[in-house]
Fold these 2 entries.
Entry 1:
Amino acid sequence: MQVLYGRHHVRVFRFGLRLVRNEQVAEDLISEVFLDVWRQAGKFEGRSAVSTWLLAITRFKALSAMRRRKDAELDDEAANAIEDSSDDPEVTVQKKDTSEVLRKCLTSLSSEHREIVDLVYYHEKSVEEVAEIVGIPENTVKTRLFYARKKLADLLKAAGVERGWP
Amino acid sequence: MMAMNKKILQQEPGDIEALLPWHAAGTLSARDARRVEDALARDQELAKQYAVIREEYAETIALNESLGAPSARAMQKLFAAIDAEPARKPSGSLNISARIAEFFAGLSPRAVAYSAVLGALALLLQAGVIGAILAKQQGGSFQTASLSGPRQESGPQAFVRFAPDARVSDIATFLDANQATIINSTAGGMFRVQFGDKPMSKQEIAGLMTRLQNEKIINLAAPAQ
């Protein structure tokens, strides 16, 4: 268990944190995830990578945790996040820090878009693995990421950053 | 490629275009990667979009890396919960070991599986070695802490995980130098270790934990309640 925990806990934590947006909740989440793994190790059939299995459990638990929180709280949070990303475009451009703006916009994406961007870029999951973790068909994985990227481009444009796509 | 550009206008990704993010992350099959490479060499618009994707890829990694790591609280909570799990059957430790080895053998890629199994084996070996030290400390007959009568609880206790390559002599020296006693091993393979027989202040315990974390032969250390 220590080997497994040592190898995966940081990535599991970060994936959970990006979804629930609360460090305390994310920490509780990883304890629950690894405890589940401890209890169900015998059920792991080895058909997929262990990290894929862990991320699928984390996602399920994160969504449950998010559902437990009040809707109003989530709405406020989303509104604040969007406000953050759409500073006065001129001011943002003056900062000349596209990286910073891009990161803010990545944070402002919906949880559905955030998770798919993270799974593909940061967790380096294939189309098949993302489909398994999120529980959607492979073609939907591709189109969802495409739309997440389009949304990102819209947010960047609103913040005054033009990248020539789309 | 005209068809592909048309699809962009229609806001639907083309076949190859939809694969670009996975190409940037290096997770495509060799066949698909070749298809994407060929298309990128032919289509300037696609290459331009790929450059944008590479930027998104780099920033997503940077953003995630900036999130830091969980505190020791999460690990403590986990191992305390594992500790509180109902006891397994007498032959349980063997079953768990076999289960863990089997579990890691199922990992992919293969290299990870090999290293994980080796890690598990190293930990099992270490557990045996530490078990021997524990038995020696208790006068040759192994008993769990709960069966060994009233134990010294005045000194602070910590959950300690030794490095898989820690040698017996290193562990013995460490225990001697710190007047430490291994109380028991937890279900998760951590060891509960008691330090001395005098209570310590919170500050002293924090200092002890820092010192333990800096020990080469220790991978993880957290205060035990």
Entry 2:
Amino acid sequence: MRLSVALLPLMLATPVRAEPPLSVTTDSSAYCEELAIRVTNQPAARQDAVRNLAEEGQRLCDTGHVRTGIAKLRRALRAAQGMGG
Amino acid sequence: MDAAIRADAAALTDRRRTPSIEALADTIEDRLALDVQGEALYLLLAPDGKKLAGNLENWPSEANAEQPWIRMPLLRDGLVSEARILRLDVDGGHRLLVGRDVAEKLRLRGLLSEGIAWAASASAAIALFGAWGLRRALERRMAPVYGTAEAIAAGNLSQRVPLSDRDDEFDRLGRTMNAMLDRIAQLMEGVRGVSDAIAHDLRTPIARARAKLEEALAGARDEEALRAAVEQGIADLDGIARVFQAVLRIAEVEAGARRAAFAPVDLAPALADVAELYGAVAEAREQKLVADLPTSLPIVGDRDLLMQAVVNLLDNALKFTPEGGSVRLSAEMSPGLVEIAVADDGPGLPPEDKARAGERFFRADAARSTPGSGLGLSLVRAVAALHGGGVALGDTHPGEARPGLTVTLRLPVG
């Protein structure tokens, strides 16, 4: 009781953040699919390096490692764009 | 980080690259698709609030504040990190957020700070431990020096710093301190000797002068006799003052205060002048002064002091040489050394007196009857020591009944 009374001015002084934290839509399985389609649409999608990265990314997404999978797919997309000139 | 966000935002809103809102939306989606680090945050809204592109779920109300920069918590994989976001207004009422997930940067900063804190703590601990160890070692090695200094401060001047066989810098310090203490003891012994000698040797002339004055006071028959007695008293007191002056001069020479007056000087002409002056004195006493001097005797030293030393030697030599005898003043130069010798035909000195000659107020038994204070040779020795040289006493005619005395003043040229 005494502690809450002592902390009251502090609690009053601290602004209450009513808004929930921001959330990101690109950490989802749906974004995995979207990236996989982007990679597939690239001219260099059949290259081994690109295909291996894309497959690995897809597999990671499927096994629940969504952020790691998305990172692999992004690398595959970069590789594909780099090869495609 | 803010600079990267600002550059990204500037590139996105560059009209040449993104001439339309559709192009801007496509660019944002392309950038998100290529963001391997997964740090980029975008949100593009239409004027009606419809989401056109980006990866932020909704427009935070904090982004409506006046300040364009905001910092907000960001939820990713169930963990709260932090986002740094810049708000921009695009043409036609469109609104854009450009930001970065700074969690990794903050984590890295935290790791670095922690690492630095640990490293600093470890360095401080090692430094403290090292300082403590060094201090202990120093205290242990300095303990004999402290002990000696305390003993000397307490009055035990015979104490010396014990030395180890390590021959390190502490032993060198101890040796230097011991040498200094030996020198101080020697000087104090000298001072004590001089004090004793002054008390002993000046008591006699003072008592004699007092007795003469007392006798004149009691028995003077007329003013003439009284005046003569007073004059004699003044002369006696002048003699005592001269002795004091000589003692002070020796002390000044021994203290090295005259070294500042050293200059290159040729002693040959000065010695010739002295020989001429004392030649006349010798003739008046039926003696002969023979000078054998080179044409040049270059040396670095104090000319006046050196001449005073030679004059003292000649005074002594003439004093102890009988009528008809001769005194020889010679000088020669060997590599790095000048030797000035004064030889007489006097009674000479027995070996034990030769060893003591040069002590202040020392007078050989045979010299008690001749006038003098026993300070002449002391000054000669002090002058020689000041010039880095020495004095040697020998017989002029070794083996004879009257061997005479030859005093040689040896002076280094440099």
